[in-house]
Amino acid sequence: MLFFIVFVLFSVLILRLGIVQIVYGEDYKREIERTEDITVNNPVPRGKMFDRKGKTIVDNVPQYAITYTYQGASQSEMLEVAERLAKLIEVKPDRVQVREKKDYWIIKNPERADEKITEEERMQFKAKKLDSDDIYNLKLKRISENELEELSAQDLEILAIFREFNSGYALTPQIVKNKDVTAEEFAKVSENLQFLPGVDTTTDWERLYAYGNTLKTVLGKVTDSSEGIPKEQLDYYLARDYNRNDRVGKSYIEMQYEEVLHGQKAKVKKITDKAGNVLSTEVVSEGQRGKDLVLTVDMDLQLEVEKIIEEELLAAKKEPGTALLDRAFVVLMDPNTGEVLTMAGKWLVKDKETGKSEMQDFALGNITSSYNVGSAVKGATILTGYQSGVIQPGSYFYDAPIKIKGTPEKASWKNFGNLNDIRALRVSSNVYMFRTAISIGGGRYEYNQPIRLNSQAFNTIRQSFNQFGLGTRTGIDLPNEQIGYKGPLAKPGFLLDLVIGQYDTYTPMQLAQYVSTIANGGYRIQPRMVKEIRAPLMDNDKLGPVIEEIQPTILNRINLEDGWIENVHEGFRQVMQHPEGTAYRKFGNAPYLPAGKTGTAQAFYDGPERKNYEFPPEVMNLSLVAYAPYNNPEVAMAVVVPWAYQGDSGHTANYEIGRRVLDAYFHLKNKQPDSTSNQPTENNDESQESLQEESQN
């Protein structure tokens, strides 16, 4: 019977093996040999940035990288790979959080972790009063600091790697290490890839700024691999075939031109067996780094202008009453195309530890900070008067102090008597602008009597100023541009302040657009930082072919009649080239024949030291707008020196900076020695008085 039973069992077994092998053999064979094709997208270097002369501003530095691509492995399998990888590379555990240490401690000590749950809590779990998450959180809560200290340095290194493994997304390479990967580490990992499923070695990149901090705030930043796509922009980028951990531009030019700079990813097909082991790798597409940007900026000029700002800012700080002076700005623009040739800003920042001030880049302040700029806006005031029909070219007003009942007396820096529009610009008459504003408002002026003005006067003037770029976005191809601050009250006295630039605030970039609009005959052109988009080349030192040349964009054309703009041009020319002009002493001998307008504004300090004062201190802001040559403008300039000094008299850093900057522009253009900007052509009483014009407003 026993033999018979054994015989039957073997017969059944043989029959079953026959069925498996003969009937289903091919099916099982196919299942065993089954493979999967997995396509992985690998990031490529971003496009580079060049200046207008082809000099590299932003580049990519290649660096070794070790990545991990999640392909469905279990946590225990990933931990095993992390342990193997930790023996081959060194990873700093500085980013490991306490919670992650506790999770790892539980994985390492499952039995001790279970002991932290009481019998009563186990009963509640069985009764479904507590769920598995509640039990796990109780374990986490009861792990002591002493128990966490049991984790060795090797454990923390493994945890740091395991943390990066878990930070990735399915089929998306996650950077495990790309900083300071040694050639030895790279070689060891490459040799042992068959024992490290999901791990790979590749070449990554890092942004290199060839000119250090110069323009760095404007160039922008790129997220790192740990940041990936910012949460607020996740949907936007995922819809454009980005991976969650892709590095993207997160500010200014890097962000504004992200889709140009990002590049086309390399696609790699990995063939795996049923167990997930990689059998072979096939390159589907090599990918291509991002397209290159040629900026409008001339870096030689940019560096020279920054040097001038630093020197003049430090020189001005030696003058009395300059405790609050800490910054200065310069914008140079082609008035005919809107190309920004230079966008420079510097500020003195106190080190919190040492208390000493250090000079830092603040180019971004040209579009993100605004100030009262004073008489520099008077060209717009005159043209607004023409457009409103209250004055005509050649119209006269008598320059004498103005007094509105209940308000302080307002006057020019001296009484000029009877003067027309051109001379009003030349000597910077406040009263001429006041009388123009009163006429725009439909008021009738009598000394020390109240004035009733049309409620639309503020809107009329502001809308006209907007046509020049004052008080509105310039449209520059950078995000987060500010428009300035509008004074909130609509009283007659403030209307008079508005037309001499002492009520609303404007950015240096707005001033540059405004003076460019005057220089080119009335076309408000959008400023831009990018000149061309170029195809990338393998040769890093050369520019590829032009893909797109950014054309000038005219935002609006100011409605002008014959003679209007010509009168303002002449007034601006005389400011710098007539002995009575307010800037003549500094610019009268300039060989490039500049035209422009000076400005000083009484303002209230609102900078970083504001917290040290009960009430905001009164300060003087200095400004200067100019273009040259006056008869065929090729460059326009705006200079702003906020909070320049306190008191009745001070320095003229706006003049010093402006002259040296224009000298530098024409010197670099013509390759000729700088002109002697410090030698006045004449030292008469009128030119000496003109330097004090604005500070005595």
UniProtKB/TrEMBL annotation:
Family, per entry: Belongs to the transpeptidase family.
Lineage, highest ranks first: Bacteria, Bacillati, Bacillota, Bacilli, Bacillales
Protein name in the entry: serine-type D-Ala-D-Ala carboxypeptidase
Pathway(s) per entry: Cell wall biogenesis; peptidoglycan biosynthesis
Keywords of this entry: Cell membrane, Cell shape, Cell wall biogenesis/degradation, Membrane, Peptidoglycan synthesis, Transmembrane, Transmembrane helix
Pfam families tied to this protein: PBP_dimer, Transpeptidase
The Penicillin-binding protein dimerisation domain, residue ranges: 43-281
Region (Disordered): 670-697
Compartments, record wording: Cell membrane; Membrane
Keyword Transmembrane: yes
Source organism, top-level taxon: Bacteria
First-level EC class: hydrolase
Domain Penicillin-binding protein transpeptidase, residue spans: 329-661
Topology term for the membrane: Single-pass membrane protein
EC number: 3.4.16.4
Biased composition (Acidic residues): 683-697
Keyword flag Methyltransferase: no
Record's catalysed reaction(s): Preferential cleavage: (Ac)2-L-Lys-D-Ala-|-D-Ala. Also transpeptidation of peptidyl-alanyl moieties that are N-acyl substituents of D-alanine
